[in-house]
Structure formats: structure tokens, C-alpha cells
Design brief:
about 5% strand, about 65% helix, two-stranded antiparallel ribbon, flat, mainly alpha, 5 helices
Length: about 200
């Protein structure tokens, strides 16, 4: 039986995806299929300094994406106390509001911290520290952002609908966040690189 490539092209024919691989990227036979050896095909020829610069630029791009959502959520939360209906909130609703406001505040502070850190340590030769520390900050920021998103939705639904609808929706959003932000990356990390 001839080896087949995952894209359906027989092993003896040039793969249409070969142009996307590094020149000379190795192929190997796995389970009757010819597979690209991804671990070797995705290597970069870069110095440590170039890798740190690229990683920090990628982190900054991630922060740009998250900051828009954080800013909108934070602005929304800051305006709520000035609405006439704010005085009608129950004790539970006020607690949800305060927790959500604090979560959004933490997100804003944590997501802007890498910029301040970079500015303070820019010429100190500490890019490796900045990249590692920014990675930790992004994780903390995403956790607080996730809490802020759920809290904001729960608060609004609790005011508009009921406690039950609000908390079930909050639980569903928590499950979605855990699935997309935690489970998918963990599962992918555990898969072999040739899959």
C-alpha cells in the first residue's frame, strides 16, 4: 500500500503545502501517512535577542487586542453608579458590581503594566525579564478580564431578568471561557507535534 499524505496526495507526489514549509523540511511515515515533521519544519533561524524581540512584539499585539474589550467594559462599569436605577440595586447586585469593577480595574492596570515596565527597563538589557514578566501579567489580566466579563453580564441579566437566568448564563460563560482559554490550549500542548 502506498503511503498517503494527510492532504490526500499520495506520498510520491509533491505536497501542495510544501511551499509553506522550510526548505528541505523532513517528511516521515506515521501510521501509513507521510507527515511533515513539524518540530523541525517550524524552527526559526534567529538569535536570542531576535527571539525576545519577536516574543515581546507578539505579547504587545495580544495586549492591543485585549485592551479594547477591557476599556469598553471598564467605561461601562464606571458609568453605572451615575444612572438613576443604581439606587434600586439589591445588596447582591451591588456586590456583583463591585467585584466586576475591581476585576476590570485590575485588568486595566495589569494590561498596561508591560508598557510601563518596558519604558522603565528599556535600556537596561533586561528584555528576557520583560518577556517572562509580561507573560505572567497577561495571564493575570486574562483571569481578571474573564471575571469582569462574566460579572458584567450577570449584573445586567440579574437586573433585567432574574437571579436564576443571570447565574446560569454566568456559569455558561465561565464554561465557555474555560473551554476556549484553558482546555483547548492544554489539549493542544499534550498532542504530539506531528498531528
Amino acid at each position: 500500500m502506498r503511503a498517503r499524505h494527510p492532504c490526500g496526495v499520495p506520498g510520491s507526489v509533491m505536497c501542495p503545502y510544501a511551499a509553506q514549509l522550510a526548505p528541505g523540511a523532513p517528511l516521515r511515515l506515521v501510521g501509513g501517512w507521510v507527515r511533515h515533521d513539524v518540530s523541525m519544519a517550524y524552527e526559526r533561524n534567529e538569535t536570542k535577542a531576535e527571539r525576545l524581540d519577536r516574543n515581546f512584539n507578539e505579547q504587545l499585539q495580544e495586549l492591543r487586542i485585549t485592551q479594547a474589550g477591557v476599556q469598553i467594559l471598564f467605561a461601562f462599569l464606571l458609568t453605572i453608579p451615575f444612572q438613576q436605577r443604581f439606587t434600586e440595586l439589591t445588596g447582591l447586585q451591588r456586590t456583583i458590581y463591585l467585584v466586576t469593577l475591581m476585576a476590570a480595574s485590575i485588568s486595566v492596570i495589569v494590561f498596561t503594566a508591560p508598557v510601563a515596565l518596558h519604558r522603565a527597563l528599556f535600556h537596561e538589557g533586561l528584555k528576557d525579564f520583560i518577556v517572562r514578566y509580561t507573560d505572567r501579567l497577561i495571564i493575570v489580566g486574562l483571569l481578571s478580564l474573564g471575571l469582569g466579563i462574566i460579572g458584567g453580564v450577570v449584573l445586567v441579566l440579574d437586573v433585567l431578568l432574574s437571579h436564576t437566568a443571570a447565574f446560569w448564563t454566568g456559569a455558561a460563560l465561565l464554561a465557555l471561557e474555560l473551554a476556549l482559554w484553558v482546555a483547548v490550549p492544554l489539549v493542544k500542548k499534550q498532542q504530539p507535534t506531528d498531528e
